[in-house]
Specification:
Blueprint (H helix, E strand, L loop, with lengths): L1 H24 L9 E5 L2 H15 L14 E5 L6 H4 L3 E7 L6 E6 L7 E7 L2 H10 L1 H22 L3 H11 L1 E2 L7 E10 L2 E11 L4 E10 L8 H15 L8 E4 L7 E7 L2 E13 L4 E11 L4 E10 L6 H11 L3 E2 L2
Parallel strand pairs: 1-2, 1-3, 3-5
Antiparallel strand pairs: 4-5, 6-15, 7-8, 8-9, 9-14, 10-12, 11-12, 12-13, 13-14
Length: 334
C-alpha cells in the first residue's frame, strides 16, 4: 500500500510537471496589437463579409480620425497553418449542416497569451445571424484579451517609483509601466473647494501619453453629471496643463456630440465616463481623451483619472488602449 501511494504521488507530480512544461513551451503570440485572424471558407466569407467587417472594423469611438476597432486578416481553413495558429486573436468559423449553432472561447491553444473564438453554425445564414446577435460579446472578448496582454506586460515591467509616488500623493494605485515620469503634484483651491492634482506622463519626440489624477470633496450625486464633470475637467486642465505656447492650455473640444457620457459598474463602484477630444487653447495640439470618475466613500471624495494621447498624424487607437489599460488597474488604498 505504501509503495502504491508513492507511485501515485510520483504520477501526480509527473502529470503536473507535464502541464508546466506545456505552459513553458508554448510560443509567444504573433501578430500586431489590434489584429484579428478570422478563419472562414470562401463561400461563407463572400456571403457574410459585410456583417463581419461592419462589426470588427467599426470605427473606434472618441478618436479624431477614423480607425477600425480591429485590423482583420481573413484566411481559409486550408491556409490555417502554424504561422497563423500562433496569432494573438483568432476567430475560427465552421459550417456543418448537422451542427448546433454556438460560440466557444478557448485560451492559449497554440501560443500565449492567446484567445480563440470558435463559432459553429449549420449554415452561412445561421452563422451570420449568430455573429450579429453576439457582436458585443465577440468584440468585448477581443478587447479584453488585448487589454489583458497590455496589463500583463506592464505588470512585468512596472515603474515602481512613479507608482509609489502616485499612491502616496493620491491614495490610489495603478500599474504604471516603464517610461512614465511623475510630473506634477499640487494642492489647489477651485470654486472654494480644496482639490489635489497629479500628472504623470510618457513622452517621446513624437508621442505623448499621460494621466491626470485629481480628487475633491464629495457633496452630492449631482457631481456625477455630464456638465459638472466636464466643467471640473476644463478647470483642472486650464489651471495645470499648459501647452507649448505662452498662455496656452489643454481644454475639451466642445463641438456638439464629440464628448460622450456613460456610466457603469467598475470594480464594484459606480463610474461615470467622459470620452472625446481635447485641444489646446492658444495652440494647435489635440487628441483623444477618456476620463473615469468614482466616489471614494471611505474618504468622502470624488476621484477622477483622465487619460490622454497626443500622436500628431499617427494612428492613436493602440496608444489610447495602452492608456486605458493603465486606468483599468485603478484601485483605492484602503
Amino acid at each position: 500500500m505504501k509503495r502504491l501511494t508513492i507511485l501515485t504521488a510520483l504520477a501526480t507530480m509527473i502529470f503536473a510537471g507535464c502541464n508546466n512544461v506545456r505552459e513553458k513551451v508554448l510560443p509567444q503570440v504573433s501578430g500586431k496589437a489590434g489584429e484579428v485572424v478570422i478563419v472562414i471558407e470562401d463561400q461563407v466569407w463572400k456571403s457574410t463579409t459585410d456583417t463581419i467587417i461592419n462589426i470588427l472594423k467599426a470605427d473606434v469611438p472618441g478618436l479624431p480620425q477614423e480607425e477600425p476597432m480591429f485590423d482583420v486578416v481573413r484566411i481559409p481553413n486550408s491556409a490555417f497553418t502554424e504561422i497563423f495558429q500562433r496569432h494573438r486573436n483568432i476567430i475560427s468559423c465552421r459550417i456543418a449542416a448537422d451542427s448546433t449553432a454556438g460560440i466557444k472561447v478557448a485560451h492559449d491553444l497554440w501560443s500565449t497569451p492567446q484567445i480563440v473564438i470558435q463559432i459553429v453554425a449549420p449554415s452561412a445564414q445561421a452563422f451570420e445571424q449568430l455573429f450579429s446577435d453576439n457582436r458585443d460579446k465577440i468584440v468585448g472578448l477581443l478587447l479584453k484579451a488585448e487589454q489583458d496582454r497590455i496589463i500583463k506586460n506592464y505588470s512585468t515591467f512596472p515603474e515602481r517609483q512613479v507608482m509609489d509616488k502616485l499612491a502616496k500623493a493620491t491614495g490610489v494605485t495603478m500599474t504604471i509601466p516603464k517610461g512614465y515620469t511623475f510630473d506634477m503634484d499640487t494642492t489647489c483651491i477651485l470654486n472654494g473647494d480644496t482639490c489635489h492634482f497629479v500628472w504623470i506622463s510618457h513622452e517621446t519626440p513624437e508621442i505623448s501619453q499621460g494621466l491626470f489624477v485629481y480628487y475633491y470633496d464629495y457633496t452630492d450625486s449631482l457631481m456625477f453629471t455630464y456638465d459638472r464633470l466636464l466643467a471640473m475637467r476644463n478647470q483642472m486642465c486650464k489651471a495645470y496643463v499648459g501647452g507649448p505656447s505662452d498662455g496656452s492650455y489643454m481644454t475639451t473640444d466642445m463641438h456638439e456630440g464629440i464628448t460622450t457620457f456613460s456610466s457603469y459598474n467598475f470594480h464594484g463602484r459606480y463610474t461615470a465616463e467622459l470620452r472625446g477630444l481635447w485641444r489646446t487653447e492658444g495652440d494647435f495640439m489635440g487628441g483623444p481623451f477618456v476620463s473615469i470618475t468614482q466616489y471614494d466613500e471611505k474618504h468622502g471624495r470624488i476621484v477622477t483619472v483622465d487619460g490622454y494621447v497626443y500622436a500628431g498624424k499617427k494612428d492613436k487607437r493602440n496608444y489610447m488602449r495602452q492608456v486605458e489599460a493603465i486606468m483599468s488597474t485603478l484601485s483605492f488604498i484602503e
